[in-house]
Amino acid sequence: MLNALSVDVEDWFQVGAFERTISRADWERLPCRVERNCDAVLALFEEARVQATFFILGWVAERYPALIRGIAEAGHEIASHGHDHRRVFTFTPEEFRQDLRKSRRLIEDAAGRAVTGYRAPSFSIDARNPWAHAVLAEEGYAYSSSVAPVRHDHYGWPEAPRFAFLPVKGSELVELPVTTARLGGRTLAAGGGGFFRLLPYGFSKWAIRQVNGEGRPAIIYFHPWEMDPDQPRVAAAPLRSRLRHYSRLSAMEGKLRKATEDFRWGRIDQILRDERAKALAFPPLAKAA
């Protein structure tokens, strides 16, 4: 079965774990490592003959257009991660619309490709802001992969379906939640990122096999900075944030190599049609204009 592999393209200082420690006003003066880290990801994918979806911040596309064009020319899908990693539930609907338009313009200008996919920073579409899906539909997006149907201290919409759903009445927009697994009556986060990096690889392998056994593709994500054990340390960040961010960075590349050997991977747009056909409406439905 073809699974979907995705990369959330942001630099080490733009992550949610540091958003209360590092000001956006300071981003310009910090050493950027996103180019070197994306180059490492691209090299790994080329060696493994894997294509993936790259969800890119508009902030990154504006400053590194050659990087974005190179990702597209390597055959990967180009999608949006918003402009500057602001969580969607902090926006008004109109602010969200403007963020979508700004980031899409910058990403499309850099990539020379149309952008039809979106992932909210820190999976920040949830029960607080279901209107966000209606805005995405109105702006012409084909899909979102912005929901984590779990309980987590930073994000989560535990009532949401585990698999593809149609969040907007009268629209073909499909929401593709990141992968979860079921164990003992509980839904466990298994979609990648810190869970993939921190937990034994055997857990991820088991979770992907479980999802495939249910007849569905896994949707896994990670960040380029997770392959960079030499990145700067943010000593002022809370201990929990530092543990989450820096632990087992040196193990990430090896785990990704194992995953590319054990499973088939492709772009999210390659699984979209089949997943849309299986998608069910998830009430309460937002209504497109």
Give a structural overview:
The protein is α/β, with parallel strands linked by helices and 289 residues long. Helix content is 37%, strand content 17%. Strands 1, 2, 3, 10 and 11 form a five-stranded parallel sheet that branches. Helix 5 links the parallel strand 4 (117-118) and strand 5 (143-144). Helix 4 crosses helix 5. The radius of gyration is 18 Å and the shape is globular. The relative contact order is 0.19.
In short:
With 289 residues, the protein is α/β, with parallel strands linked by helices. It has helices spanning 34-48, 58-63, 65-73, 93-111, 131-138, 193-198, 201-213, 239-246, 252-262, 268-278, and strands spanning 2-9, 53-56, 77-80, 117-118, 143-144, 165-169, 174-175, 180-183, 186-189, 219-222, 264-266, 280-287. Strands 1, 2, 3, 10 and 11 form a five-stranded parallel β-sheet that branches. Strands 4-5-7 form a three-stranded parallel β-sheet, sandwiched between helices. A two-stranded parallel ribbon has the order 6-12.
User: Pairing-aware structural class of the strands and helices?
Assistant: alpha/beta
- What does the largest sheet look like? 5 strands, parallel
* Silhouette: globular
- Counting DSSP E segments of at least 2 residues, the number of strands comes to 12
